[in-house]
């Protein structure tokens, strides 16, 4: 019994430190190079786990780093997105598991 407890603890510690148990798999839903800018705009899905709810994030991705523009918690599906002009990005997202209905929400994001 003692060996079983020790083995379980080793597996849990190894899994947590390597990130297997703590990380959800993010998924890039959409990526577009912004004209006349030095970055790419990414729409990323962040799955839920025991500590966070699902979310959709809009990020600027530079060559050497990334910057989060906005996070929309409780959303898990992207209907569509469009670059309206060089400073405005439109995102249509929804929560498909909501008990209040799953109507789409339109977000307009100012990018600089």
Structure summarized in a few sentences:
By secondary structure, this protein is α+β, with helices and mostly antiparallel strands. The protein has one helix spanning 2-18; strands at 27-33, 40-46, 55-61, 66-73, 77-85, 88-94, 105-110.
Describe the structure.
It is a single chain. The protein is of the alpha+beta class and about 110 residues long. It has one domain (about 25-110). Helices cover about 15% and strands about 45% of the residues. The chain has one helix at about 1-20; strands spanning about 25-35, 40-45, 55-60, 65-75, 75-85, 90-95, 105-110. The strands form 2 sheets. It has a 4-stranded antiparallel sheet, with no helix packed on it. Strands 5-6-7 form a 3-stranded antiparallel sheet, with no helix packed on it. The radius of gyration is 19 Å and the shape is flat. Mean pLDDT is about 85; it is low at about 15-20.
Key features of this structure:
112 residues; alpha+beta; 4-stranded antiparallel sheet; 1 helix
From the N-terminal CA to the C-terminal CA, the straight-line distance is 60 Å
The overall strand count is 7
Structural class: alpha+beta
Order of helices and strands: HEEEEEEE
Average pLDDT over all residues? 84
Radius of gyration: 19 Å
What is the overall silhouette? Answer: flat
Number of domains: 1
Spatial arrangement of strands, main beta sheet: 1-2-3-4
Helix content: 10-25%
Number of H- or I-type helical stretches = 1
Query: How would a crystallographer describe the biggest sheet?
Result: 4 strands, antiparallel
Beta-strand percent range: over 45%
């Amino acid at each position: 019994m003692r060996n079983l407890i020790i083995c379980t603890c080793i597996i849990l510690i190894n899994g947590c430190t390597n990130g297997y148990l703590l990380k959800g798999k993010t998924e890039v839903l959409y990526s577009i190079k912004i004209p006349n800018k030095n970055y790419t705009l990414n729409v990323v899905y962040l799955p839920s786990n025991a500590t966070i709810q699902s979310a959709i994030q809009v990020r600027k991705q530079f060559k050497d780093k990334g910057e989060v523009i906005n996070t929309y918690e409780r959303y898990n599906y992207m209907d569509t997105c469009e670059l309206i002009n060089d400073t405005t990005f439109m995102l249509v997202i929804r929560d498909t598991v909501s008990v209040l209905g799953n109507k789409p929400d339109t977000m307009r994001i100012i990018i600089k």
